[in-house]
Specification:
Structural class of chain A: mainly alpha
Strand content of chain B: under 5%
Shape of chain A: flat
Number of domains of chain A: 3
Distance between the termini of chain B: 51 Å
Number of strands of chain A: 0
Structural class of chain B: mainly alpha
Distance between the termini of chain A: 79 Å
Strand order of the largest sheet of chain B: 1-2
CATH topology of the largest domain in chain B: Four Helix Bundle (Hemerythrin (Met), subunit A)
Radius of gyration of chain B: 22 Å
CATH class of the largest domain in chain B: Mainly Alpha
Number of strands of chain B: 4
Order of helices and strands of chain A: HHHHHH
Number of helices of chain A: 6
Oligomer: heterodimer
CATH superfamily of the largest domain in chain B: Cytochrome c oxidase, subunit III, four-helix bundle
Largest sheet of chain A: none
Chain lengths: 147, 231
């Protein structure tokens, strides 16, 4: 690119990406990727990208078993009230976090993807809050008129 | 990679427009976030599925809070009788462990896929599918028991609030449908892996993408287990 011709953002992006790929995709030990498939370039970068020791998966697996047992025991021992809710939701969030972060490899993804996927569901909090208030109101009016 | 950028979409800076441009933009390995399009698309599908399941669960929360009739106690409804003693929620606990185990085998399948150990990968995927079939089988057993023995219907049941049946069948039915689809998906990918379909390109990311879907099914069950069965 000569400095005299102004570049479009598209060109700049393509250039930037090519440079990034050149640094990321170190020559893999695997058989040479055939470029005709179209997937070949991602394969080269991902051959290293999501490779984690089996032991890590086994540890998470064990941890999920422990957490599931714990949440089952909450019911088995008839915990009630605030304690029950805290424990159930805590175990639920921990399990969900482990599955997303490790099994679905979210912990090693790019921040842009993490934000694009994990932030939108936060909007559900508003819906939960609205419906909770609404159904409380419904319950009260039902009690008043049909109770 | 630069070939994908230039060839099907026109020259850089001058992408082709109109319907041809639309087809080119949607079909030519366009990537966002430096992540392959297949993975991003699966994630976006899972995001939309998150909203579907959340809507079901929030709807269930609404009817459960709003009803003035006592909600049937899941601990007793889903209990198993072993040797005369009632063990609460036993079947559901076993289903949970089955699904978590399937997630474990799936994670290892992805690992072996990237190491290009085809046989180990396909075997682990088949094990995952087998766990999935077991899960669906147990769910069919649970549904049969509830419909035939307990008399639960979508419009009412003898144990309490009428909304119990509709919420239960809707949520677990939709989840079971996802598991069933996942089993079919896994079997297709596993057989392709076994036949060496991906050897030419050396790209085994499809296994990771299938894994994303499978882990999501497990993830949804975590929420159903906590919110429907343990509440």
């Amino acid at each position: 690119m000569s400095a005299t011709t102004p570049r479009t953002p598209y060109e700049e992006f393509a250039e930037l990406r090519a440079a990034q790929q050149a640094t990321q995709a170190a020559p893999p030990a695997a058989p040479p990727a055939v470029p005709q498939a179209g997937h070949a370039a991602p394969a080269a970068s991902h051959a290293h990208g999501q490779q984690h020791p089996i032991g890590l998966y086994l540890k998470i697996w064990g941890l999920l078993f422990v957490l599931s047992t714990a949440s089952y025991l909450v019911d088995y021992f008839h915990f009630t009230g605030l304690l029950r809710w805290t424990l159930i939701l805590l175990f639920m969030v921990l399990k969900a976090g482990l599955i997303i972060a490790v099994f679905m490899h979210m912990a090693w993804e790019r921040t842009a993807l993490i934000c694009a996927i994990l932030l939108p569901p936060l909007a559900l909090g508003v819906l939960i809050w609205l419906m909770h208030a609404e159904s409380d109101y419904t319950f009260l009016t039902r009690g008043m008129f049909f109770g | 990679m630069s070939t994908h950028v230039s060839s099907p979409t026109g020259t850089p800076g001058h992408p082709i427009g109109g319907w041809r441009g639309l087809v080119a933009d949607w079909s030519s390995d366009q990537r966002a976030f430096q992540v392959s399009w297949g993975k991003v698309m699966m994630w976006i599908f899972l995001l939309s599925d998150t909203f579907i399941f959340s809507s079901f669960l929030i709807g269930y929360m609404s009817v459960r809070i709003a009803t003035t009739v006592p909600w049937p106690n899941p601990s007793h409804v889903f209990a198993l009788h072993i040797g005369g003693a009632e063990v609460p929620l036993l079947l559901i606990a076993i289903m949970t462990f089955v699904l978590i185990s399937s997630s474990g085998t799936m994670a290892m399948a992805v690992n072996f896929a990237y190491r290009r150990q085809r046989k180990a990968c396909a075997l682990l995927m088949l094990a995952t599918a087998l766990f999935g079939v077991t899960f669906v089988g147990m769910q069919a057993f649970e549904w049969t028991n509830l419909i035939v023995n307990e008399g639960v219907r979508p419009w009412g049941n003898p144990m309490g609030a009428a909304q119990f049946g509709s919420a239960f069948f809707m949520i677990t039915g939709f989840h079971g449908f996802h598991v069933t689809c996942g089993v079919i998906y896994l079997l297709i990918v596993a057989s392709k892996v076994l036949r060496g379909h991906y050897e030419a390109s050396g790209n085994y990311q499809i296994v990771e993408i299938a894994g994303l879907y499978w882990h999501f099914v497990d993830l949804v069950w975590v929420f159903i287990f906590a919110l429907f069965y343990l509440w």
